[in-house]
Write a structure and sequence with these properties.
This protein is mainly alpha-helical. The chain contains 12 helices and 4 strands. The strands form 2 sheets. It has a two-stranded antiparallel sheet with strand order 1-2.
Length: 262
């Protein structure tokens, strides 16, 4: 392949078996996913993706092959991944690469209701979860790292309000991170839309207006949230918000002995 006359780097350990039969099935699933969803790739990305997947090689110049989606695709192509690998890959790339990866997942795959690319989406979800690791520099940029996760946090309560299990959402794995950042971002202009949405969803939930209440009001994510509220462990501003909502409701749910009465 002529483009591999250029300087290349090894992305995956040479000791990994990259061309085994099981990976060929996964590769077909990945290619289908990439063709449908990663539309910002350059026209000549396909040979690079194949060589990455089966040989573990990419051009030395970062983003030369697959633009902003390159670190995500490295993680999706790898023979195996863990948090350390994901952090190490995304630390090599600009902030916007992590932003694109998280936002695409938030908009289209949270929660995963698409079985067509089950293995790919499962791995993609894990990548998004690991991008909440504070060793990745994008989280220090207030205009980049924190807001996608604030959106994912709000979506937890949107799903609960709509009668779905919060455990299906990727945001349910990031509650601690978002709450640890809440006081830092609450007053920023870009946060206000999401805080209004959060207040709206919490108001409905605390008023007992969730769809499918039998499921929602026994959901572990909601129970744990109310437990943090009752023990005053929420961020101060969020603690105050929930208290204001409760006091303003003529009828509301009660949280007693770890259970919700509605």
């Amino acid at each position: 392949m002529t483009q591999y006359a250029e300087s290349i780097r090894r992305v995956f350990d040479e000791n990994h078996e990259l061309n085994i039969e099981g990976r060929k099935f996964y590769y077909k699933e990945l290619v289908s996913f990439v063709r449908e969803w990663l539309i910002s790739l350059p026209e000549d990305y396909a040979p690079y993706l194949k060589v990455l997947f089966f040989q573990g090689l990419l051009p030395e110049e970062h983003e030369r092959a697959m633009r902003a989606m390159e670190p995500l695709l490295i993680c999706l192509c790898a023979p195996s991944i863990d948090r350390e690998f994901i952090v190490s890959i995304f630390r090599e790339y600009p902030i916007y690469c992590a932003v694109h990866a998280v936002e695409l997942f938030r908009v289209h795959f949270d929660p995963n209701e698409e079985e067509k690319w089950g293995e790919v989406i499962q791995r993609y979800r894990y990548v998004v979860e690991c991008l909440a690791d504070q060793r990745i520099p994008w989280l220090e940029d207030p205009d980049a790292g924190r807001f996608p996760f604030l959106r994912l946090y709000v979506k937890v309560f949107v799903k609960l309000h709509n009668g779905a299990s919060a455990s299906q959402t990727v945001g349910s794995t990031m509650l601690d991170y978002v709450e640890s950042q809440f006081e830092k971002v609450k007053d920023l202009p870009a946060s206000q839309e999401f805080l209004l949405s959060l207040r709206k969803r919490l108001t409905a939930l605390l008023a007992g207006e969730a769809d499918n209440p039998e499921l929602v009001y026994s959901d572990p994510v909601l129970l744990e949230f109310l437990s943090r509220y009752s023990s005053k462990q929420l961020p101060p501003s969020l603690q105050l918000m929930v208290g204001e909502i409760y006091s303003g409701l003529p009828h509301h749910i009660d949280f007693v002995n770890g259970e919700i009465k509605y």
